[in-house]
């Protein structure tokens, strides 16, 4: 672990960011450039004291999980993320089509979307990051672990996941999820995490096996969807996706028609928040 190098790199990357880059307001009393240490700590999910000690060259070695969170908070590119891991004395994560490091360009767009649900998905249907409105509809992705991080896995193993969609939309959504998994499986191969998902679902779901055998292959995001929220009811939205250059991640934006009842419902969701009404809490 290169304590001096790690401290200097984190400080310089912190100072290079503006509060607006991470969805914060600058405030009237900000005198130093970039983000404050406590802001980086809060966005990363660590204590302020822990982060301060790292920048002061006296902290313990950060875990790989903590480094991944720091890389996201500081909007690091893949090369910068790898450099961060080396400075901290860890092996660099292997770059694959399933890499979960969020593209900074997508994060910058997501940070500016406060008035409509938006989330960033991996090629495996994992929600890597979501704004507050998306969490209020789909639940908090931070609460999911293992295979359950994938929307595809939860769709075929957890009936509560389907409650976000009306029953007559379930068949279309199931086919869409399996077709997208086919794309990831084709790119990464049977020994990948996509292959692990396929084997796990084939062992527990007859419905998945039947859809997998159809061999439908497509990334299906651009669509008109009806989402069901337990407090405000049905919400009709148009769904658009912005992909990274390598097609490994997608920013999904769900927008209501201007002047529609759905627009009013999303405004209401912004007031209600997600604490009591997320799908995972039903």
Largest β sheet strand count, sense and barrel closure: 5 strands, antiparallel
Please state how the strands of the largest beta sheet are arranged side by side.
2-1-5-4-3
Give the termini separation. Answer: 44 Å
Name the structural class.
Answer: alpha+beta
Judging by the overall fold, what is the CATH architecture of the largest domain? 2-Layer Sandwich
Q: Number of helical runs?
A: 12
Tally of structural domains: 2
CATH level 1 name of the largest domain: Alpha Beta
Please name the CATH topology of the largest domain.
Beta-Lactamase
Order of helices and strands: HHHHHHEEHHHHHEEEH
Integer-rounded radius of gyration: 20 Å
- Strand residue content: 5-15%
Low-confidence stretches: 274-282
Which whole number gives the mean pLDDT? 87
Could you say which overall geometry the principal axes of the C-alpha atoms support? globular
Percent helix = 40-55%
């Amino acid at each position: 672990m290169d304590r001096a190098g790690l401290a200097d790199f984190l400080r310089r990357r912190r100072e290079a960011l503006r509060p607006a880059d991470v969805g914060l307001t600058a405030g009237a009393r900000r005198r130093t450039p970039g983000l404050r240490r406590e802001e980086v700590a809060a966005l990363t999910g660590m204590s302020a004291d822990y982060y301060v000690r790292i920048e002061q060259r006296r902290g313990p070695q950060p875990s790989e999980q903590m480094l991944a969170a720091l890389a996201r908070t500081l909007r690091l590119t893949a090369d910068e993320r790898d450099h961060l891991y080396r400075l901290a004395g860890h092996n660099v994560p292997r770059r694959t089509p399933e890499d979960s490091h969020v593209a900074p360009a997508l994060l910058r767009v997501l940070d500016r979307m406060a008035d409509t649900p938006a989330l960033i998905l991996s090629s495996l249907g994992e929600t890597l990051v979501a704004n507050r409105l998306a969490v209020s509809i789909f639940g908090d992705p931070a609460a999911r672990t293992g295979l359950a991080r994938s929307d595809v896995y939860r769709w075929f193993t957890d009936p509560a996941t389907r409650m976000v969609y009306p029953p007559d939309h379930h068949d279309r959504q199931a086919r869409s999820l399996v077709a997208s998994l086919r794309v990831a499986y084709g790119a990464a191969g049977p020994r990948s995490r996509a292959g692990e998902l396929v084997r796990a679902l084939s062992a527990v779901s007859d419905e998945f096996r039947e859809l997998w055998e159809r061999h439908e292959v497509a990334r299906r995001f651009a669509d008109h969807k009806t989402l069901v929220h337990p407090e405000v009811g049905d919400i009709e939205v148009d769904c658009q996706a912005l992909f990274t250059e390598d097609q490994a991640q997608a920013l999904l934006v769900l927008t209501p028609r201007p002047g529609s009842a759905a627009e009013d419902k999303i405004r209401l969701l912004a007031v209600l928040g997600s604490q009591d009404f997320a799908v995972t809490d039903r």
